[in-house]
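Here is the promised in-class demo. Please do not try to memorize the tokens; focus on the logic of going from shape to residues.
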């Protein structure tokens, strides 16, 4: 279950289990329950690096980050060295000579671990899995047709100590507590009942105010997003 752990852990842990000589493996439980299912992606940004005020050489730090966030830097940190750790196929996708979502024993022998999460983008990360037959890759390919992306929703933020922020904090905690009862329900009926109870709690915590706030700021954010997107496409 993705909500219980990072989606690649089944592959990574199974590789470690195999290296230890044990005869069991872990399996992702990710099958879609319906062709009508939807997975909403509202992520507007991810991890990032910052130059601190105490940095003694800001220019050097900036050059390092500029390289790391460039195409060459991201590929190096995420995939390794071209011609040594990977080659590009005819379509431009990397063919790695190590298990991207599994055992990294080959890299460890060289004292390496490619891990570009802090400076990656979704493209460099995702296409590294195209030629990988891991559970994670198969699941992502299967889920792709059900994903609905709208990063503008992820751009909605609440001012510190505002009514909306306080409501959101309480809602987040309530949902976190309710999820366990939903996931662990012993029947479909019990699952629906637990879900409806969570919605009832959310309404009592004034979820409607957040919906109003989102509708108020969304048009302006959408217009700005469309403007930036149009400039990028050019």
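The designed amino acids, position by position:
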């Amino acid at each position: 279950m993705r909500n219980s752990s990072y989606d690649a852990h089944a592959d990574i842990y199974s590789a470690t289990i195999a290296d230890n000589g044990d005869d069991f493996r872990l399996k992702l439980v990710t099958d879609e329950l319906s062709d009508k299912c939807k997975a909403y992606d509202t992520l507007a940004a991810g991890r990032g690096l910052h130059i601190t005020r105490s940095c003694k050489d800001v220019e050097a730090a900036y050059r390092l980050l500029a390289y790391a966030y460039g195409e060459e830097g991201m590929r190096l940190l995420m995939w390794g060295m071209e011609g040594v750790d990977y080659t590009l196929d005819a379509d431009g996708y990397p063919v790695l000579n190590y298990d991207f979502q599994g055992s990294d024993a080959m890299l460890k022998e060289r004292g390496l671990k490619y891990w570009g999460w802090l400076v990656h983008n979704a493209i460099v990360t995702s296409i590294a899995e195209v030629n990988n037959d891991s559970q994670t890759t198969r699941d992502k390919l299967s889920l792709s047709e059900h994903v609905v992306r709208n990063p503008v929703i992820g751009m909605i933020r609440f001012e510190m100590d505002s009514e909306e922020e306080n409501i959101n904090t309480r809602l987040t905690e309530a949902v976190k507590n309710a999820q366990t009862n939903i996931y662990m329900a012993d029947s479909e009926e019990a699952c629906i009942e637990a879900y409806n109870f969570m919605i009832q709690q959310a309404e009592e915590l004034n979820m409607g105010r957040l919906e109003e706030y989102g509708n108020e700021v969304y048009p302006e954010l959408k217009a700005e997003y469309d403007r930036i997107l149009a400039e990028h496409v050019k």
